[in-house]
Design brief:
Length: 231
């Protein structure tokens, strides 16, 4: 009898264990691999930026940015976070110069970045098509709803095509007064591969002063060039 009871208990434990593993979503299903974090991980981006200001010519720059996951710390909420060093250089022949240090972390439900001392919720988990969230939830700016689209779809950047990506649209507004288009694209096991920030305010007098119809604003495109780990 004892042997029979032990046998039944053993079978139940195996069955329960199998059920538990099936009910626990994998990191891939949750979308965590769209925001990988590992000390030594780095990404290099090509940047094209134009700044517009009335009565002056557009100020155009091309340069590169490198983001390096430098180390881990425990943040003020007693959760693990990563120090992100950001470097810049004029081109691939130039020397990197440390530009700033940001903080980032991925919890079970968000990917958070402290950029220039402002917290943004860049991703929300579990990530899926049509998911919406307030990207300004942890800062003092007004509500701004982000939306995930083109989930697990291919996306081409420079000469490379990334098979499984997700596009995060922050804003897409165009009218007679302004153009405000902000979006990010993330690839599985790489993170951010493309960033677009087009924020332009148009002249309202019908003239073409300075820069065509643009009164002021910024045109910013960031494309991934290289990804790897220095460790």
């Amino acid at each position: 009898m004892c042997k029979k009871i032990l046998f039944i208990v053993g079978v139940l434990m195996i069955f329960w264990g199998c059920n538990s593993s099936e009910e626990t979503p994998s990191p891939t299903r949750l979308g965590y691999d769209f925001y990988p974090l590992e000390v030594g991980q780095y990404a290099i981006y090509d940047v094209f930026e134009v700044k517009y200001q009335i009565y002056t010519k557009p100020d155009t720059h091309t340069y590169q940015i490198k983001e390096l996951v430098y180390d881990t710390i425990t943040d003020l909420t007693h959760e693990p976070a990563f120090i992100l060093y950001r470097y810049s250089r004029a081109n691939s022949s130039s020397t990197w110069s440390l530009d700033s240090a940001w903080l980032t972390k991925r919890t079970s439900y968000i990917a958070l970045r402290k950029e220039n001392n402002v917290d943004y919720v860049r991703l929300s988990f579990p990530l899926k098509e049509g998911l919406k969230w307030n990207g300004n939830q942890y800062n003092t700016y007004g509500e701004e709803m982000y939306e995930a689209s083109d989930f697990d779809q291919p996306y081409q950047v420079l000469d490379s095509t990334y098979d499984k990506t997700v596009t995060i649209l922050q804003r897409d507004e165009v009218n007679a007064v302004l153009k405000d288009r902000r979006m990010d694209v993330y690839a599985r096991n790489m993170g951010l591969i493309y960033k677009e920030r087009i924020q332009l305010t148009y002249l309202q007098d019908g003239g073409t002063v300075g820069n065509g119809d643009i009164d002021h604003g910024t045109y910013y495109i960031q494309k991934i060039r290289e990804f790897g780990n220095e460790r």
